[in-house]
Amino acid sequence: MTILVTGGAGFIGSAFVRMSIGQTDWRVVNFDKLTYAGNLENLTSVAGNPRYRFVHGDICDQALVDSTLAEEKPDAIVHFAAESHVDRSILSPEPVIRTNFRGSFTMLEAARRRGVQRFVHVSTDEVYGSLAAPLEATEEFPLNASSPYSASKAGSDLLARSYFVTYKLPVLITRASNNYGPYQFPEKLIPLMIANAFEDHRLPVYGDGQQVRDWLHVDDHCRGVMAVLEKGREGEIYNIGGNRSLPNLDVVHKVLQLTGKPESLIEYVKDRPGHDRRYALSSEKLMRETGWRPFTNFETGLAETIDWYRANSAWVAGVRSGAYLTYYERNYGNRARG
Ligand code: NAD
Ligand code: TYD
């Protein structure tokens, strides 16, 4: 089987490519634009493998997507490519809407014309919006997006569904909770806190830090996407959660503990506009239908992730330069309370 993975140079996509090459006999074509979040260093372990090919391209480029599908004839598409960060979507929504909605449309349309046998659309629990405790979203919950990021994901999620309902394209949709693990770009909570703690920089906690997220190790997420690709029912939606809900402040405390840094590094800063208070979801359906389970214990996974960032300081230094510093200043420069 040949699979085409979009966004395979990013955090989750690269873990999925490494897992596919390492644990299956599939050919993997990675289609990626290499935005600030895409990094071929994430793929050095597979780059020389004859079953792996990289195509540098934008998912909004219909002609290139069409010609790549015509050449590679993938049996399945796993669509990860996205602008994936809420804060950036607040600062600059245009590329987020373009890639996440328009780009998903391009991929769906190309898949429909080619008659691809399986299209896994990678969505997020953020499409459900903020949920009051003790609610846990099941796949039937209404979509209630709050940020330009989650709205663009909700839009593409619905568009993917429409291609199943209208054109019978064999679409499957996954909605995962917050991922963590190696190679995550240090703009998201966990890698940002780890990288700042290493350098004794302030750890910026938005608002009161009591917002709740459900933490899923990236390898557990990838195994979930694989389970859906191989065993999921066409037209169905599958939640993928880590079954580990924590307030942000608890996560930050754990990072400080594991890095041996003082609590005085915590800085409470102005809250994110429209900040969702709590995400929570049930993965019962995926577990029942495929036997998938999240294996990684959060404390173990976090300690291993910290070890990875410690051992890969050159990778961190490479991505925390240039445009990253501009972004950091834009997002945090004006945020101090008072
Ligand atoms: P990421 O930002 O680390 O990587 C995104 C990748 O997509 C990069 O390699 C980038 O170069 C590529 N890309 C961006 N725009 C593109 C375009 N126009 N054409 C081609 N490639 C493009 O993202 P991630 O955290 O790995 O997330 C991957 C997917 O998983 C996204 O769809 C995201 O919405 C979803 N998701 C992420 C999380 C999470 O916690 N990170 C949770 C649930 C779902
Ligand atoms: P993030 O990793 O951006 O993921 P998402 O917003 O998609 O859930 O943020 C996770 C949580 O951490 C979210 O509630 C916002 C909060 N947060 C901070 O408090 N400080 C930060 O510097 C960042 C990046 C996030």
What's the gist of this structure?
This protein has about 350 residues and is α/β, with parallel strands linked by helices. About 45% of the residues lie in helices and about 15% in strands. The chain has a domain at about 1-180 and about 215-240: NAD(P)-binding Rossmann-like Domain (Rossmann fold), CATH 3.40.50.720.
Task: Describe what you observe in this structure.
The protein has a domain at 2-180 and 215-240: NAD(P)-binding Rossmann-like Domain (Rossmann fold, 3-Layer(aba) Sandwich), CATH 3.40.50.720. It is built from twelve helices and twelve strands. The chain has helices at 11-23, 62-72, 86-91, 93-114, 148-167, 189-198, 218-231, 248-259, 284-290, 298-311, 313-319, 323-332; strands at residues 2-6, 27-32, 52-56, 76-79, 118-124, 171-176, 178-180, 203-206, 212-217, 237-240, 245-247, 266-269. Strands 3-2-1-4-5-6-10 form a seven-stranded parallel beta sheet, sandwiched between helices. The chain has a three-stranded mixed beta sheet with strand order 7-9-11. Helix 1 (11-23) crosses helix 7 and helix 8 (248-259) packs across helix 10. The radius of gyration is 19 Å and the shape is globular. The termini are far apart. The chain binds nicotinamide-adenine-dinucleotide and thymidine-5'-diphosphate. Residues 6-7, 9-13, 32-35, 37-38, 58-60, 80-84, 99, 103, 122, 124, 153, 176, 178-179, 185 line the site of nicotinamide-adenine-dinucleotide.
